Amino acid sequence: MMKVAAALALVASASAFVPATNMVASTRLNAEMVWGEYDDKMWDNDAKKEVYAKWDPTAPRTGLNFNPFETFGGNSPDASGIYPGENRYKDPKRGDVSYAIMLIEKAEIEERIANPKPGEEPGCPGCKN
């Protein structure tokens, strides 16, 4: 009797390792994903300024149309406009940083805040927030 119980337990547990017959591997790619112009390239302040110059706040947000200086949850986007914690986020290649460079960037930030692009407001199509 003990041998029969052991054999039944062995057969029943073995089915846990058999793949389901209706499982299908997903091969569909996200056709809408567009990588940024600086993907896998240096993502420094000069690159961000170029992306910002091309950004249209009234157009939908994409990997090529986003505000590289916009933060979301305290984080900055990568070179494709994707934030840490989101699918497909890539840690960008960052440039050198020094206190002198940070002071120059601070002045540029203040200038951008004082003179936003036309249409740049919370909730606009080109913004995350």
Task: Briefly say what this structure is.
The protein is mainly alpha-helical and 129 residues long. Helix content is 30%, strand content 0%.
Secondary structure: elements and pairs:
Elements: H1 2-14, H2 45-54, H3 99-114
Could you explain how this protein is built, in words?
- With 129 residues, the chain is mostly helical.
- It contains three helices and no strands.
- It has helices at residues 2-14, 45-54, 99-114.
- The longest helix is centred in the last third of the chain and has 16 residues, at 99-114.
- It is elongated and about 85 Å long.
- It starts with a helix and ends in a 15-residue tail after the last helix.
- The model is unreliable at 23-28 (pLDDT under 50).
List keywords for this structure.
129 residues, mainly alpha, single chain, elongated
